[in-house]
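Changelog note: in this version the structure field was regenerated for every chain. One regenerated record is shown below for reference.
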Amino acid sequence: MDTTQMVELVGNIGVIGASIAAIRGVSAWRREFKGKRDTELAEDVRCLFYRVERAIGAVRCRGSYSSEGQGRVPEPNETPEQENARNQAHVVFKRIQNHGEIFDQLYALRFRFMARFGREKVKPFDEMKNVVDEIWVSAGCLAQLWAVRLHRGDDTSPGTEQQIEKHEAVIWSRGPEDQIRLRVADIIREIEVACRPIIEGRASWFSWLWGKAFAERGAPKP
């Protein structure tokens, strides 16, 4: 092989090597970009679940302002008992509506999360939605049951009182052993389990990349 052929061969090898390096660089960039998007989504979801937890706590606060029961349009032929009971239930409806933006964000992120990480990962979203729906339904039931109690007074049947007790335990917080609060706490733990590997995996990638860069420069890591 003469000198000219040798130069051409070396040049070709250099081009191939540069091409391989470019391909590897693009692949690494794609992995990095995807990892960044995944991490940002996981962080957004986890943060939003904390906000939803707080919103549900606000909805279920037993104390209320008199103005919270106002603004409901009475139905035709409402009895005084019905009006009173429905105004009380309206407080819960109004609070859920006031936090509607947070709940809507949660439901919207559910589909992004499912598209990115799979259908099996969205169980916490569905469970949290079920909690909000259950509060709404119980408030609707109480709008009827409270009216019955007010109308019958001491003659309210034990079955009606049991139903009232059941639904009040859903719409109102009842201390450390409150079942709705405990359910929400379990859901928060579920979403943390789903998001933590995504977020920590990103952190591990950056730590490796950061350490590798400094090792190549021969400088100590900061």
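Spot check on this record: Confidence is low (pLDDT under 50) at residues 18-34, 203-216. Residues 3-217 form one domain.
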